Amino acid sequence: MTGAFGARTRKKGLGINITPLLDIVFLLLIFFMVSSTFRDNVGIDVVLPSATTSEQQQQAQYAVVVTATGEVLFEGEEIAIAQLRDKLLHLQREEPEAKVVLEADKKAAFQDVVAVIDTARSVGGKQLIIQTAMPTTP
To answer: Average pLDDT, stretch 112-131?
Structure first.
């Protein structure tokens, strides 16, 4: 096909405009980023006991968990009581005002919970928080 003065004209090819598609993809990405929640203790199943005298505390920096089967976890890693003492001593030297929260399953053996409390007290930590669930009112 020739145009004016014998110049050849090119046929315009068909194309898909993806700009609106990119807009929608970015909007969905932003929506999911804003609406998603992040959990700290994923994978640890602990049922906390409730206490009527419990108070809302500021979130602790470090967590010690005693599971129903007697496992002791420090910051998500399974650990022995002797190793827990070493970690808490190191933490006490690094951060003297560090808060440690004890999360014990209500079916955990009492001696396991007392062993963790005794270990924390022997280190000399000042901020041991025992986490409980707020009671539900009928």
So the answer is: 81
